[in-house]
Design brief:
- Strand 1 and strand 2 form a beta hairpin.
- The chain has 71 residues and is an all-beta fold.
- It contains no helices and four strands.
- The chain starts with a strand and ends with a strand.
- The chain has one domain.
């Protein structure tokens, strides 16, 4: 599969492109050939990003992580 090493999200309300993101990852090139556009993750492919917060409350126990879409 692969492993994410880090990344960032930038939010700019004055820009036409409000959110930009970068991610650093290591992908297994035999399974995740990033140059093959038919793969789930490849070069020049749009992705959806969400930030997750671990649920440490006694409510909503069916959600171990609360996800917030970021674009």
């Amino acid at each position: 599969m692969g492993r994410a090493l880090g990344g960032s999200i930038n939010v700019d309300g004055t820009s036409a492109m409000h959110r930009t993101a970068s991610i650093q990852l290591i992908a297994d090139d035999t399974i995740n050939n990033l140059t093959n556009i038919n793969n789930l993750i490849s070069l020049n492919k749009k992705v959806k990003i969400a930030i997750g917060i671990k649920n440490t409350t006694n409510k909503y126990l069916e959600y171990p992580i609360f996800w917030f879409p970021q674009g």
